[in-house]
Amino acid sequence: MSKLDIQNLAKSFGDLQVIKDLSFSINEGEFVSILGPSGSGKSTLFQMIGGISLPDSGSILIEGQQVNGKRGVISYTPQTPSLLPWRTILQNVLLGQEIAGKINKEKALEMIERAGLKGYEHVYPHELSGGMKQRVSFIRSMLSPQSIICLDEPFSALDEFTRLEMQKWLLSIWSEYKRSILFVTHSIEEAIFLSDRIIVLSSKPATVQKEFIVPFKRPRLEDLLLTEEFLQ
Ligand code: ADP
Ligand code: MG
């Protein structure tokens, strides 16, 4: 059974049909990218998968169960993820676990350290750079109990150097945690670098145009070690 099944999804805003007859599925532990130009309906799709908005027709199934309009079944990080400004970094990281009622503070502290954020546990988000906030929001996703992680263009606002380091970091965490990841991007390069499989959306209305397996292996993890300066 597929981990996530999208079946014949359709969504319009007034006269504008954004998504039409969109179907695809992802398997356990797979890293799948949804690739499409700006305005092709990627965020609209994610909002439906995240239960934030309802499709006009079609189904979203997780392990065979329909979840249309249900929040909290997947871990969804919107295009502009926001850390809660009144909570410290540690408290922000623990949020996903708190909602699930199962807190593992030690694991959270360990992940914060691995993300190069040791010493920042008790500071507030405004003291962090963009890349650091991005890492905090990933840690939160990775520590939340949901087995499907949906990330909407998490790196598009970062400079190229930071983006590459973040991509490597995401891959190393993903290979360890083995979650199913659905990753939205408008960068062909990024999709090829990160994914097992790429789903290309046609624009307006979005429907799957092409679906292909990335035809070569990712760089080996040993080659993906983060630069020490970056983690200082
Ligand atoms: P992408 O994430 O691929 O850049 P979006 O899903 O954000 O694309 O938007 C797809 C299209 O739907 C755009 O033309 C956008 O203007 C339109 N759209 C998105 N959300 C709404 C909304 N709430 N109301 C009206 N139009 C919307
Ligand atoms: Mg978008």
Descriptive labels:
ATP binding, 31% helix, binds adenosine-5'-diphosphate, 8 helices, 232 residues, 4-stranded antiparallel β-sheet, binds magnesium ion, transport, ATP hydrolysis activity, alpha/beta, single chain, P-loop_NTPase, disordered C terminus, 6-stranded mixed β-sheet, ABC_transporter_ATP-bind, globular
Description:
With 232 residues, the protein is an alpha/beta fold. The protein has 8 helices and 10 strands. The strands form 2 sheets. The protein has a 6-stranded mixed β-sheet, with helices on both faces. Strands 2-1-4-5 form a 4-stranded antiparallel β-sheet, covered by helices on one side. Strand 1 and strand 2 (16-26) form a beta hairpin. It is globular. Residues 13, 16, 18, 36, 38-44 line the site of adenosine-5'-diphosphate. InterPro entries: AAA+_ATPase, ABC_transporter-like_ATP-bd, ABC_transporter-like_CS, ABC_transporter_ATP-bind, P-loop_NTPase. One of its GO terms (molecular function) is ATP binding. This is ABC transporter ATP-binding protein. Keywords: ATP-binding, Nucleotide-binding, Transport.
